[in-house]
Amino acid sequence: MMNFDFTQEQEMLRQTVRKFVDKEILPHMKEWDERGYFDPNILKRLAELDLMGVCIPEQYGGMGMDYNSLAIVCEELERGDTAFRTAVSVHIGLNSLTLLQWGTEEQKQKYLVPQAKGEKIGAFGLTEPNAGSDVAAISTTAVRDGDDYILNGQKTWISLCDIADHFIVFAYTDKSKKHRGISAFIVERTMPGFSSRAIKGKLGIRAGNTGELFFDNVRVPKENLLGEEGEGFKIAMSALDNGRFTVAAGACGLIMACLEASVKYCHERKTFGKEIGRHQLVQQMIANMEAGLQMSRLLVYKAGFLKNKGRRNTRETSLAKWMACDFANKAADDAVQIHGAYGYSNEYPVERYLRNSKAPVIYEGTREIHTIMQAEYVLGYRQDKPLRNMLPAWEEK
Ligand SMILES: Cc1cc2nc3c(=O)[nH]c(=O)nc-3n(C[C@H](O)[C@H](O)[C@H](O)COP(=O)(O)OP(=O)(O)OC[C@H]3O[C@@H](n4cnc5c(N)ncnc54)[C@H](O)[C@@H]3O)c2cc1C
Q1: CA of 133, closest atom in ligand 1
Q2: 199-250, pLDDT tens digit by residue?
Q3: Where is the Acyl-CoA dehydrogenase/oxidase C-terminal domain (predicted)?
Q4: Is residue 141 classed as helix, strand or coil in its secondary structure?
Q5: Is residue 74 predicted with pLDDT exceeding 90?
Q6: Does domain 239-379 have CATH number 1.20.140.10?
Q7: Fewer CB in a 10 Å sphere around the end CB: N or C, the chain?
């Protein structure tokens, strides 16, 4: 039985996030983006609204809502700015849900519970200067020493690098085993030998914090190994199934923002004696945005449906992420086009949308990686098995 209705609780959640974005994010975005300023108070406010653990079970400090509720939060936040959706993507999608899936009870109590309450912030360190799409090319190492592991290496392009308290970090415990020799660790910012540095001069997500992590003989207790030694690659891929879902949902929010701005401008601006919205070639761009939004949402909510059932969803999530981010990138390009020269200035928000729309086409699997994945599924070169520790099904509400 298919059901396209949201629950009353989900509708209220959307209204809550929308009001918050309208009141506390949008009025500041031009300035924050210009200054390249990430406001950490936004995360505190999201915590007060119980959103930092929206889909984490109540027993671990969260709100206990389902995956499509997480999608709603991401959509509405990215309608404000991609920076804040990205923060939720790494905190909940890549970190907290990964702890929920792979963590021991002690790890959940120590790290997940404060993260779900928003008292601590989580992030995800996989990418390195010489390893992005090719995860097995990482060179960070973790060497066992008594009851600890000693981490050495460097990560780059890590969201919330200067903000997060806890990071899930991937390192080789046995390089000879290739990707089966990667392990995952929970690293705290306060551990001696850890440092971070923001990257300046980004094209977009300027109001976000992105940068490098350095590990100089960081001693991590063995209790902070996530999963088993050698399970890091599998853990990273399962984390990406959740992260990509949040990115896809956020892209729908960016399309909504493009539509809002463009529809308003279509009614305001007149050429050749009529509103530009009356010109068919402008209508074509508006129609494409609407089609992109509706198709992306269907893919996102379908992936959410599978996640709620605890079913493997790598294929569906990859498709949703690929399509939604491409549609959002195109919608932002068209939104600038509709605004003509004004769209080229930060007097209007659409140039920020265009700059922000690019990173999601690169992170959490580039457009090319998702294209290859989809082709391989169809050609039968790639098949998914159910994962160990699949999250339990959410209760139908
Ligand atoms: C704003 C931002 C935030 C980020 N946040 C995080 C984070 O929090 N944590 C984290 O770990 N990482 C993060 N990243 C990094 C991101 O995940 C990587 O940039 C991404 O995985 C791509 O890797 P790369 O940049 O090294 O590109 P590469 O892998 O070097 O790819 C370069 C180009 O080659 C193409 N390519 C590569 N392999 C193939 C292939 N087999 N076939 C066809 N084409 C191919 C790619 O599609 C791309 O066009 C972030 C990036 C950005 C921009």
Answers
A1: 29
A2: 999 999 999 999 999 999 999 999 999 999 999 999 999 999 999 999 999 9
A3: 230-376
A4: strand
A5: yes
A6: yes
A7: N
